[in-house]
Amino acid sequence: MIDSQPVGGGDVNQAFKLTTTDHQQYFLLMHPSDSKNFYQQEIVGLQLLGQTAKVPQVLANGMWGADAYLLLSYIASQPFGDQYALGRGVGKIHKRTSQNGQFGFNVDDPEGRTTDGGVWYPDWQSFFINERLEVRKRIIMNRHLWTGAMDARYQKAVAHFKALMKTHHSTPSLLHGDFWSGNFMFDENAQPVIIDPTVFYGDREFDIGVTQVFAGFDNEFYQGYQDEYPLDDGYQERLPFYQLYYLMLHLGKFGMEYQGSVKRLLRSLA
């Protein structure tokens, strides 16, 4: 190796672009951990998504001193690319479903974005409420950022979600699980590359709802998705509940700056 250059690795990992003496380039993620399996969830996710979409190739993982590491192929990127192709690609991913016909996943996410692996439910409504919303709520309560007024609106929002789900059939699709604009990029040919997954099997509207929380997806993305795998009637009413989950995740992780957004969304859903 002749060069190690720090690059953005998200809010959890240290990340480096490595260049070797023969000019090969690699992407290295590192995180303090006592387990060589720290990145197992991401590895499995990349392997699953890579059967349908372009993703970084997993080259090696293990321990380096007191840090877990994950070595990936390096993909040169550019800021703009084919969002229509991105939408179609996500639609193709969502067409893949769980082998057992249930909702969940079987590998832990050590970064805390999801629940423990090995949790499966026969219905999406119960999985989403128990393993997503309620988990986030407990974390927020432990940080003393959950008020009585928020809880009253939350209970009404959950009842509203249950009512909407009575007329919607959920299929356990393969999901990225954390699909905001920081988790895709475009290669040198302007083609989409999917990164940093937290995969599980769930209703595909979950991923689409998350895309709408922060900027980064344009109309071409949604058109591409609809052309590949049209969303079911009434999806506009259901997407805000997945936005609520994602904002609750950020409130529990990053603190007070997201409380106002959660409160406003709860008011609109109650």
CATH topology of the largest domain: Aminoglycoside 3'-phosphotransferase, Chain: A, domain 2
| Overall body shape | globular
Number of strands: 12
CATH architecture of the largest domain: Alpha-Beta Complex
Going by helix content, strand content and strand pairing, the class is alpha+beta
Low-confidence stretches: none
Proportion of beta-strand residues:
15-25%
Kindly report the average pLDDT value: 93
Whole-Å distance between the termini? Answer: 56 Å
Radius of gyration: 19 Å
Element-level helix/strand string: EEEHEEEHEEHHEEEEHHHH
Q: How many domains, in number, for the residues?
A: 2
Q: Main beta sheet: strand number and arrangement?
A: 5 strands, antiparallel
Question: Could you give me the name of the CATH homologous superfamily of the largest domain?
Answer: Aminoglycoside phosphotransferase (APH), C-terminal lobe
With helices defined by DSSP (H or I, 4 residues minimum), what is the helix count? 8
CATH structural class of the largest domain: Alpha Beta
Helix content: 25-40%
Order of strands, widest sheet: 1-2-3-5-4
Protein name: Fructosamine kinase family protein
Family: Belongs to the fructosamine kinase family.
InterPro entries: Fructo-/Ketosamine-3-kinase (IPR016477), Kinase-like_dom_sf (IPR011009)
Keywords: Kinase, Transferase
In short:
The protein has eight helices and twelve strands. The chain has helices at 40-49, 83-94, 124-142, 148-165, 205-211, 219-228, 235-254, 259-269; strands at residues 3-7, 14-19, 25-32, 58-64, 67-73, 77-78, 103-105, 119-121, 173-175, 184-187, 192-194, 200-202.
